[in-house]
Please model this.
Amino acid sequence: MDLNGIELTWLGHAGVRLRLDDGTTVLVDPWLTGNPACPESEQSQERIDAIYLTHGHFDHFGDTLSLAREHGCQVFAIHEIAVYLEGQGIEAAVGSNKGGMVEGPGGIRGFLTDAVHSSGISGDTGIVSGGEAGGWIFDVPNGPTIYHAGDTTIFGDMTLIKDIFSPDIALLPIGGHYTMGAGIAAKAAKLIGAETIIPIHFGTFPILAGTPDELTDAGGGAFEVQALEPGVPVT
Model:
């Protein structure tokens, strides 16, 4: 896996941190506190320039409000979540929608893609609309193209993600039950065509039973599986 100087850290579950060589730091789906897979040392962050959300479920939306208030960072999300954030006092919320492109700190271009999942935000009075679930393609200057699929199962238009964006690295959920499991994720990986697959959304709870070894076996050598340790950066 060639990150060309970009530091990538899995924060457990679906949370990911990207740090560019100029120090620009962005988080995807920052569920840190209360996440049994997130190391205690990562449950606070020294610097955040932007947060990207795939959807509104608690295990992805996570600490977005507290982190955005603490760091004053931009938060990129589908329109309905951005409106919700604005209602919570987050002035730097940036709404987008599928097919749209947003340019964030460090010159990272983010493209919101489809995902097959739901997206309601759990609140004190029940679930409110979070629009539709999505994924993000990150075009990193002088770095790889990274696809964070969010929560999804396989869908045929993953072939278009390959054709349009040619991701080098894809972060795919493999746990099963709420997302695709490892076997289906292997088929999705072949549609996407990325050389390296980083498994996410597994092992946090017993019900998320898929494993990186199962993904490797199901892949049959068609792609590299890079299983990360939470809180341990790779470059």
User: Anything to note?
Assistant: The first helix runs from residue 58 to 61. The mean pLDDT is 97. The chain is about 20% helix and 25% strand.
